[in-house]
Design brief:
- The protein is α+β, with helices and mostly antiparallel strands.
- Bound molecules: methionine sulfoxide.
């Protein structure tokens, strides 16, 4: 059994993400279930870094994001493509790092304590957008290209699980 609580707050990011990935691979070995995987990933990432909000918005046809498994205070239930950071990342199919949410036009404030944010698109093996991973922090400039790279690897691994 993997250690229940992973604390990566004091690790440099280049070491934190490989540890996070290793922990997720161990915990989710043999699990072929998107909801179980998204819930577990949200919990592990959220607590390892003590983020403010960590979770998934799932793509629902035609162009809507609907909240999925998450950790944190109440999130928006639905976000249209093109709206806020999540909807923009979905529409543009790219990771968006927002160092200061107050300077991002159209940012949707679900929790007033949120200062910075990263949103990473999740694609399946065919390149179809299936979700976005959204993480909020109480700290300004909490996320950078190292978080983008680390989280993009995590979601690539998730998208490959059980889907060949
Ligand atoms: N801030 C996000 C909305 C989702 S919540 O923060 C959980 C956005 O602007 O898309």
């Amino acid at each position: 059994m993997a250690e229940a609580t992973l604390d990566l707050r004091r690790e440099p990011k280049h070491r934190a993400y490989p540890q996070l990935q290793a922990q997720l691979i161990t915990i989710l070995a043999g699990i072929d279930d998107d909801v179980a995987a998204m819930a577990t990933m949200s919990s592990v990432i959220h607590h390892a870094f003590q983020h403010l909000w960590t979770g998934f918005y799932r793509v629902v046809p035609p162009d809507l994001l609907r909240v999925g498994p998450y950790q944190g205070t109440l999130g928006c239930l639905e976000i249209a493509f093109g709206r806020g950071v999540c909807g923009t990342a979905a529409a543009e199919r790219r990771t968006i790092v927002v160092p200061d949410v107050n300077l991002y036009p159209g940012h949707i404030a679900c929790d007033a304590r949120s200062k910075s944010e990263i949103v990473v698109p999740v694609f399946d093996a065919r390149g179809t957008l299936i979700a976005v991973l959204d993480i909020d922090s109480e700290r300004r400039s909490a996320f950078d290209h190292e978080d983008a790279n680390g989280l993009e690897q995590v979601v690539r691994w998730f998208a490959g699980m059980g889907r060949g």
